[in-house]
Amino acid sequence: MEVLERRPYPYRTSFPLDEARVRLPGGEEATVLVKELDRTKLDERTRRAKPAFVHNPQREIVVYTEILPDRGLGTARCYGSTAAPGAAGYALFLEKVDGVELWQRGDLEVWEETARWAARLHRDVPAPSSPHLLRYDTPYFRQWWGRAEHFRGRAALEGFRRCHEEAVERLVALPVAFVHGELYPSNILVAPGRVCPVDWEMAGAGPGVLDLAALVTAWGDDQARRLVAAYAAAAGAPVCDADLDAARLVLAVQWLGWAERWVPPREHATDWLAEANAAAERLTS
Question: Tens of pLDDT along 180-220?
């Protein structure tokens, strides 16, 4: 693949993006997005906030080159990658998807289709074994509790300590699936007839209900029930309310332990302490 032109893309995720015009091996030209994956490419603010232990520059490369191709899931086409320490670095050359972020869509039908998409992902893609992907297991969940307690103080979390431990036990007993890991509406592009999650930086093996929990966060009870129903219908199995609340609790604790002074963009902000308390209350009621 020959890069003919490359310039910074106005929108970036945690890693910088460039827009490039490339010539493919068959002579066809295409416009692609180049995503740099080296930790050194993060801006200073993001680098300080993103825990080093969750970063692996090869994770998304494995997802796009080994797991997602030929699945018919509507994910971005991968035109190529580089995976070499040093000058070449780690990068992905991805399709520039013509879509809008899910959070900009207020019609619940689009969200329901996304829930069905998540069910197909968990149902049809085998749990991965690559060492580059995260393992959503007991040690992983427990380390977030320690970080959250350090950053927020023991008193703030004490009310749901035992509930969190029980939630972890519940989740690790569930079947293991391939999960996106951050299936929040800011990481999902939608277009007519297409759902395209992006930013697979936290992809791994774990209970599928983690992705469903991320999707329903911030919705009211009635809307959340509709999303869960759409997911269950596509999965061919009901979703246990306690499993979903356990996932909502551990995700909230993860964000409480993400970084000491990390503040998300205003349009994506969530009161994670309130979310954790609400999930714990439902689990113990």
Answer: 999 999 999 999 999 999 999 999 999 999 999 999 998 99
Contact (Cβ atoms closer than 8 angstroms) between residue 188 and residue 102: yes
Q: Where are the beta strands (DSSP E) in the chain?
A: 2-8, 17-23, 29-36, 78-84, 89-95, 100-101, 134-135, 177-179, 188-191, 194-197, 204-206
The CA distance from 33 to 202, in Å, is 20
Q: What is the CATH number of domain 2-95?
A: 3.30.200
* Residue whose entry in the numeric block shows the structure tokens 């297991």: 137
pTM: 0.93
Measured distance CA(280)–CA(87) in Å, rounded: 48
Looking at residue 226, what is its pLDDT? 98
Cα(161)–Cα(159) distance, rounded to whole angstroms? 6
Task: Give residue 247's pLDDT.
Answer: 98
Pairwise pLDDT comparison (175 vs 40), residue with the higher score = 175
> CB–CB of 209/174 below 8 Å?
yes
Fold match, 2-95 / 100-284? no
* CA-based nearest residue to 201, from 64, 31, 2: 64
CATH top-level class of 100-284:
alpha beta
Neighbours of 104 (CB within 10 A): 11
Q: What φ, ψ does residue 160 adopt, rounded to 5°?
A: -130, 25
**Domain residue spans of the chain:** 2-95, 100-284
| Stronger pLDDT, 42 or 92, i.e. the higher one | 92
Give the C-alpha separation, 282 to 256, whole Å: 19
Q: Which alpha helices (DSSP H) does 50-132 contain, by range?
A: 59-62, 108-124
As a whole number of angstroms, the distance between CA 97 and CA 116 comes to 20
